[in-house]
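User: I'm putting together a teaching handout on how multi-component assemblies are represented. Below are the sequence lines for each component of a complex, exactly as they appear in our records. Could you produce the 3D structure of the whole assembly as structure tokens, so the students can see both representations side by side? Please keep the chain order the same as the input.
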Amino acid sequence: QVQLVQSGAEVKKPGSSVKVSCKASGGTLNNYGINWVRKAPGQGLEWLGRVRIDDGVAGYGPKSQGRVTITADKSASTAYMELSSLRSEDTAVYYCARDPVGSPIGFDVWGQGTVVTVSS
Amino acid sequence: ENLLTQSPGTLSLSPGGPVTLSCRASQSVQSSYLAWYQLKPGRAPRLLISGASIRAADIPDRFSGSGSGTDFTLTISRLEPEDSAVYYCQQYGSSPYTFGQGTKLQIK
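Assistant: Of course. Below is the structure of the complete assembly, with chains in the same order as your input.
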């Protein structure tokens, strides 16, 4: 059974950047997309964007455009999400989740979450 | 962008009874790519239903989904205390994928 293992918690200053990784354990991510979703305190779930592992093509949510960069290393079965120009409102738990390309299965496997705290 | 509106916002119910949660989309959801997730504090979201009505692996048959087009529902037939959570619908048929604002369900 594939698990998604994310990198550890981060504390960052406003204006800096953070890069979170998501690695598949127990299998590969071939034929999957990796999505990034965040949950800020008191807010709902927000989809940030997605990358197709096989060709690296990424798409973003409207609020993510310009500050979020999602990439993938197929050989390492790892995806990355980098968020720049951090502000306090970016404090949240960031999750990665896989979905099979071209299938209606949805986000069936999730990472454990990475807490990102933005504070001066 | 396909906006999803969930109702009600909060529910407080007793164990044993049924509940139906609603999710309405601003545009038709492509190919019924509509999912429901359960979110509990300190845990990752859990996929309950995808394709509007397909139960995910290991999800009890108390959970069922239905709907098409712009109107979808999640029904829990016999509430248990561990069903206390926030439930989100999501459309993943067209980018950007979007989530509803969530329905908080408390079982007392």
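A couple of points students might notice: The interface with chain B takes residues 35, 37, 39, 44-47, 50, 59-62, 95, 97, 99, 104-108, 110-113 of chain A (CB under 8 Å). Chain A has no helices and eleven strands.
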